[in-house]
Amino acid sequence: MDTAEEDPTLARLAHFFEHLRPDTLVQLGAHYHPTVVFKDPFQEVQGLAALQRIFRHMFDVLEAPRFVVHTRVRQGQEAFLTWDFHGRARGWAFTLHGASYLRFGDDGRIVLHRDYWDTAEELYAKLPGLGGVVRWLRRRLAAPQ
Questions:
Q1: % of the chain residues with pLDDT over 70
Q2: Whole-angstrom distance, CA of residue 145 vs CA of residue 56
Q3: Residue 87, pLDDT above cutoff 70
Q4: If DSSP codes are grouped into helix, strand and coil, which group holds residue 65?
Q5: Residue 83: burial class (beta carbons within 10 Å; 0-12, 13-18, 19+)
């Protein structure tokens, strides 16, 4: 059920992510439970402090990182967001297409946040040098058309 327009929690969360800056990281606790579990293709951590470190690191190593949330769907205590993540690393601009599964606790804050995105397609294939190898491997392993 798509309740994006009717769910103020998801609307606030999408706004928060789309306007995330280093100085807004202190507001993570308004959206995330202190014992939140966060997992993405690179790491799994537990706790609000660990989640803040991940976002702080993002701002430390990337230039102008930003999210654009496209889809917000919620059913009960579970939600799903689709998004694009834009950034630059050493002048190299990139966009990752991904999705987040969220589970809310009884207090309305997120207790589980799991990000899904294809590291091969969305990151490795776009890297100079390594990208050529990934694209070759993908062509080699794909079924003939």
A1: 78
A2: 44
A3: yes
A4: strand
A5: buried
- CA distances to 3, 19, 20, 69 from 73, in Å: 6, 20, 21, 11
Beta bridge mates, 98: 83
Quote the tokens at residue 136: 């070759």
Of the candidates 36, 16, 43, 33, the one whose C-alpha atom is nearest the C-alpha of residue 115 is: 43
Q: Is the separation of the CB atoms in 96 and 125 below 8 Å?
A: no
User: Residue 6 — very low, low, confident or very high, per pLDDT cuts 50/70/90?
Assistant: confident
Report residue 135 as tokens.
């694209």
The dihedrals phi and psi of 107, each to the nearest 5 degrees, come to -85, 5
Choose among 37, 40, 63, 62: nearest CA to 50.
37
Starting at the earlier edge strand, list the strands of the sheet with 32-40: 43-46, 32-40, 110-116, 92-104, 78-89, 63-75
Asked if 84 and 100 touch (Cβ cutoff 8 Å), the reply is no
Specify whether the CB–CB gap between 14 and 72 falls below 8 A: yes
